[in-house]
Design a protein that fits this description.
Blueprint (H helix, E strand, L loop, with lengths): L1 H9 L3 E7 L1 H4 L6 E7 L3 H13 L4 E4 L5 E3 L4 E7 L6 E3 L3 E5 L4 H10 L15 H7 L2 E2 L2 E2 H4 E8 L4 E5 L19 E9 L6 H18 L5 E2 L10 H6 L1 H17 L3 H16 L8 E3 L2 E4 L5 H14 L9 E3 L3
Parallel strand pairs: 2-5, 3-5, 4-16
Antiparallel strand pairs: 1-2, 6-7, 7-12, 8-9, 10-11, 10-12, 13-15, 14-15
Helix pairs in contact: 9-10
Length: 326
């Protein structure tokens, strides 16, 4: 470990030793690492990743960890955070973003300049690098529609470039997420060729924000959608009769209850009740959004995932990243 410490000091890379991951995840437990590294440029990022590869040091690279869950047994030597790697370069018909650029922030700038295709990303947590890997999408926006290319450092310490076609995007997936191609995203080039009236774009942003506030965002800590939403259809098919009865039961509440938050809570409870697992409702803001509170345990989360998979006959595809010895 002294070797790592010497390298970080020599290259002026900021780090925190003996780091508890709950510090960044705000979730109790969540494992730890020996060194939590915070490079502040692409140059520093490449250096620390290359060093870890060359020296066979166990490490991970993370962004905002807004959709990453670290199991309590997670341990590693080095975690490299990309959050301070935020260089941005504007070209004629594209923008090159370092991997740590905030997706929502760059999207606001794109809307301000009249670039279409970004208005749905405003309010979405996470970095551009992670979004390009996951093929993040929200409302009318999707990464597979705006990414031109991705530059990454592979496991042989080589810089390679992948085009949009090379990434083989599909719903919440890419060759990088499936590990068909292994490497660490350094930068993402996004196109700005589609332009639209700024007033129209801002109106969409406003409508999206209202919908997100009323129907998506909650007041409890969550990692967003746990499962890839389209795969929930398997569960809906298995329980179509029960869920139809749930709609009938829910109808009076839609008339009588005016508070949107209370109505959402009632709907969530009824969904789990008619699925036969009402005990899960207290942990969730919706069928696909698990939430953490002070007394929430890892067992609660894993029980939720296992129960949902059982109900769907193991057809659900997990969207979040789960790191650790499962």
């Amino acid at each position: 470990m002294g070797m790592i410490n010497e390298y970080l000091v020599e290259n002026e890379i900021e780090y925190d030793p003996n780091f508890l991951l709950s510090t960044i995840t705000k979730i109790k437990g969540n494992g730890c690492c020996d060194y939590y590294c915070k490079p502040n440029s692409l140059s520093q990022l490449k250096k620390i990743i290359s060093f870890c590869i060359t020296e066979n040091i166990l490490f991970d690279v993370v962004g905002n960890v807004s959709n990453t869950y670290f199991l309590n047994n997670y341990r590693t030597s080095v975690i490299v955070s990309t959050l301070k790697v935020k260089e941005i370069s504007f070209n004629n018909d594209s923008i090159i973003c370092s991997c740590g650029v905030n997706l929502s922030k760059i999207s606001r700038e794109c809307v301000r300049r009249g670039f279409a295709g970004y208005e749905g990303f405003i309010g979405v947590p996470g970095t551009v690098g992670a979004a390009a890997i996951n093929n993040t999408g929200a409302f009318q926006s999707s990464m597979h529609e705006i990414v031109k290319s991705v530059t990454l450092l592979n496991l042989e310490n080589e810089i390679i470039h992948l085009t949009n076609k090379d990434l083989k995007y599909e719903t919440r997936n890419s060759v990088l997420k499936s590990l068909e191609i292994k490497g660490f995203v350094l930068s993402v080039e996004i196109h700005t060729k589609e332009k639209e009236d700024i007033t129209v774009l801002k109106q969409r942003v406003l409508e999206n924000r209202i919908f997100r506030k009323n129907n998506i965002d909650g007041h409890r800590k969550s990692l967003g959608s746990v499962f890839v939403s389209p795969t929930l259809r398997y569960l809906m098919v298995n329980f179509r009769v029960r869920l139809f009865l749930k709609k009938i039961c829910y109808a009076p509440f839609k008339i009588l209850v005016k508070d949107t938050a209370k109505l959402k809570k009632i709907n969530t409870f009824l969904v789990f009740l008619f699925l036969g697992v009402p005990q899960l409702a207290k942990h969730c803001d919706s069928l696909n959004r698990f939430c953490w509170e002070e007394n929430t345990l890892e067992d609660d989360f894993m029980n939720y995932i296992n129960t949902m998979q059982r109900l769907s006959k193991n057809k659900l595809k997990i969207e979040i990243a789960i790191k650790g010895n499962q």
